[in-house]
Description:
By secondary structure, the chain is mainly alpha-helical. Helices cover about 65% and strands about 0% of the residues. The protein is built from six helices and no strands.
Amino acid sequence: MNLSLPPKIQKLIDRRVKSGRYHSAQDVVTAALVTLDQQESLAGMSAADLETIYPGIKEKLAQGLAAARAGDVSDGEAFFGELEREERTLATKRRMFGVHASAYVARGTTFDGGGAGDSRGK
């Protein structure tokens, strides 16, 4: 299959390949589609199903909202700066040990990496 992509999308793909996180443009597109499929699946789930997948999610959300209302929040710039540093460290390790996105796809590993629906339990 050949696709014609807008320049903006091509730049996004190229940037991810150059970061070392992905081995090829195909890996980026595969990861994006896996993530999209996961998001669409989650969007169609009931609250009970989400609770099964993410035990205690209602309580965690309530705690987070209460903390935010009380002013106990993190600086967004600092938080995302730390995430970017962690991602660079992981990308370096992947390059050093020869682990590419295609290896994760082949094993059926997801690519959520703490994005939407943070799977790290935070």
